[in-house]
Amino acid sequence: MVRSPDSIPVPSEIETSDHELMLAVRDGQVARLGELFERHHGPLYGFFVRLTGQRTLSEDLVQQVFYRILKYRHTYRDEGKFSAWMYHLGRRVAADHYRKHRTGETVDREEVNLEHIPDDAMDSGEQAEKNDDLALMQKAFAELPLDQREILTLHRFQHLPHSDIARLLDCSVGAAKVRLHRAVNALRDSYFRMRRHDGAR
Q1: Exposed, middle or buried, 1 (CB in 10 Å: 0-12/13-18/19+)?
Q2: How crowded is residue 56: how many other Cβ atoms within 10 Å of its Cβ?
Q3: Is the predicted pLDDT of residue 116 greater than 50, yes or no?
Q4: Measured between alpha carbons, how far is 180 from 174 in angstroms, rounded to an integer?
Q5: Residue 9 domain-assigned?
Q6: CA angle, 15 then 18 then 23, to 5°
Q7: 165 and 155 in contact (C-beta within 8 Å)?
Q8: Residue-range definition of the domain harbouring residue 91
Q9: Residue 78 belongs to a domain with what CATH number?
């Protein structure tokens, strides 16, 4: 079956991949960084908010990451994956901030959004119980060490595969899985400890 000319997509209608956009930026088309910013500033902001618990700071850190993307664009490699490279720079930006301000082990748990969506089918009692559970989970997450908050955020919220996380952490895939497993266990243990404590009051 021969398709009509109207049904054949023209190049302008085909979305350019992140990798292709970054190669264009690297090769001098710096205006195309705006397209990457539009695609990724939201997820990157979410990464920083969960890591730091501070919205204004997270906005600043996002800007710093994209500044570094522009500054270090010549180091982007053809075999690279843009999102993994972006989070690599994000981790460096966060580490520089913590080093400068000597913070990072705790966050403001009021700002940690674990993005649980309310269930409209629940009655008010069930919803209240779920909200209480979410508040405890947010508190438990906020009190985790920075490295555990980071790996949980990369995997559970940014949806990076184990291979990308391993590359970011400069370790094997197996080691990344072990670190993630320990972080999940630490979050679970902290959550249930807080539930027991609240129930005992």
Answers
A1: exposed
A2: 9
A3: no
A4: 10
A5: no
A6: 110
A7: yes
A8: 15-107
A9: 1.10.1740.10
14-41 average pLDDT score: 93
Between CA 55 and CA 48 the distance in angstroms is 8
Under a CB-based contact definition with an 8 Å cutoff, are residues 19 and 82 in contact?
yes
The pair phi, psi for residue 122, each rounded to 5°, is: -75, 150
pLDDT (tens digit per residue) in 143-166: 899 999 999 999 988 889 999 999
For 66-114, how does the pLDDT look when each residue is reduced to its tens digit (9 = 90+)? 999 999 999 998 776 899 999 999 999 999 998 887 754 455 544 455 5
For the chain, how long is the longest CA-to-CA vector?
73
Q: Which amino acid is at 47?
A: F
Residue 153: which of 73, 172, 22, 144 has the closest Cα? Answer: 144
**Measured between alpha carbons, how far is 111 from 22 in angstroms, rounded to an integer?**
32
What is the rounded distance in angstroms from the CA atom of residue 35 to the CA atom of residue 82?
A: 13
Are residues 22 and 96 part of one domain?
A: yes
Count of domains for the chain: 2
Which tokens go with 123?
């009655």
Residue 26 lies in a domain: yes
Could you give the count of Cα atoms lying within 13 Å of 48 in the half-sphere of its Cβ?
29
Alpha-carbon span 162 to 180, nearest angstrom: 9
Which one-letter DSSP state was computed for residue 171? S
pTM (2 d.p.): 0.72
